[in-house]
Amino acid sequence: MRRYRNGEIWNFESQTPAGGAGVILGLDGGTTSTVCVCLPAAMPLASALPDPLPILSRAVAGCSNHNSVGETAARETLEEVMAQALSKACSNRAAVQAVCLAVSGVNHPMDQQRLLDWLRDIFPSHVRFYVENDAVAALASGTMGKLHGCVLIAGTGTIAYGFTEDGREARAAGAGPVLGDWGSGYGIAAQALTAVIRAHDGRGPQTKLTKNILDILGLSSPDELIGWTYADPSWARIAALVPVVVSSAEEGDEVANRILYDSVQELADSVIAVVRRLRLCGKDGKDPFPLVMVGGVLEANKKWDIGKEVINCISKVYAGAHPIQPKVEPAVGAALLAWNHYSKEFTGDHGS
């Protein structure tokens, strides 16, 4: 176990007693923010989890997607937020029993292995590690740590991810904005910006998006929009314009409405693709399955409710979809996932 970056980040450990009660860390890392929560490892093994959950601490940091900020900066964020969570819980790395890192940008076994190797350098040898895509934590937040069903995330980015009870998994979308995360906050806002430019130079219809976007950004002309966009083309900065698209659609703007309807179909198609591949709906297509809905794009937006429209589209194909709005955040889902794995190993229960 060594100290990454510099020793200062773990200096608090000299003030915490050795041999403290065991803890679990769950981390949800995305392109906008990274959250880490700390739970006690000694929660009762009962059919129902404690309500409310005994969350010992919560810490927040910035982006930890290595595709967005680079591997070094992403790891610094991950280490910082884990150290903060342990410090707030008056705990230390020696007390950690299991860690679940659920991070956007983890799309390949090589991504997982690099993070696992890095974690083993930071924590003692007894700690169990689980590295997943952030979609897994989002699913676990709706199923309270159980991996079964499908999750749709639509925030800055988007992905649909599904698991069967026998451990098979599948995903759709989630390849980032360059490869077409249509339906995501970035995708919606980028189409709106494109529509403004097209209207300005005569290639597209006039739209209320022009005035509404320029007003919110404090710009006077669509020409200035080009400079604004490329001055800092970060995904979250662009995605922050989604509320303007929604309000423009609610005002009756045809261009904004078309962008939203197309995005709804893209999001629904992602879920349908995953459900079909995993046969989550059974052979006849009617079996019920949990559909966890996560992300700012899917939250109710006045009259134009993107999440509701997505559910309507999916239900036309798979009536067994059971929408779930998680009661806990994805970081807690990650912690519960780690706790479930740890508890099964601790008790010798290796069943499903």
Write the layout of secondary structure elements.
Layout: E1 23-29, E2 34-40, E3 57-61, H1 66-69, H2 71-88, E4 96-103, H3 109-122, E5 128-132, H4 134-143, E6 149-154, E7 158-163, E8 169-173, H5 185-201, H6 208-217, H7 222-231, H8 235-239, H9 242-250, H10 254-278, E9 289-294, H11 306-317, E10 321-324, H12 330-347
Parallel strand pairs: 1-4, 4-5, 6-9, 9-10
Antiparallel strand pairs: 1-2, 2-3, 6-7, 7-8
Helix pairs in contact: 4-12, 5-10, 9-10, 10-11
- Name of the CATH architecture of the largest domain: 2-Layer Sandwich
- H-E order: EEEHHEHEHEEEHHHHHHEHEH
Please tally the β strands and state the result. Answer: 10
- The largest sheet has its strands arranged as 3-2-1-4-5
What labels would you give this structure?
single chain, 352 residues, alpha/beta, Nucleotidyltransferase, domain 5, 2 domains, five-stranded mixed beta sheet, disordered N terminus
State the gist of this model.
By secondary structure, the protein is of the alpha/beta class.
Report on this model:
Helix content is 43%, strand content 17%. It has 352 residues and is an alpha/beta fold. The chain has two domains: 7-144 and 329-347, 2-Layer Sandwich (Nucleotidyltransferase, domain 5), CATH 3.30.420.40; 150-325, ATPase, nucleotide binding domain (Nucleotidyltransferase, domain 5). The strands form two sheets. A five-stranded mixed beta sheet has the order 3-2-1-4-5, sandwiched between helices. Strands 8-7-6-9-10 form a five-stranded mixed beta sheet, with helices on both faces. Strand 6 (149-154) and strand 7 form a beta hairpin. Helix 5 (185-201) packs antiparallel against helix 10 (254-278) and helix 10 crosses helix 11. It is globular and about 70 Å long. The protein starts with 22 loop residues before the first strand and ends in a 5-residue tail after the last helix.
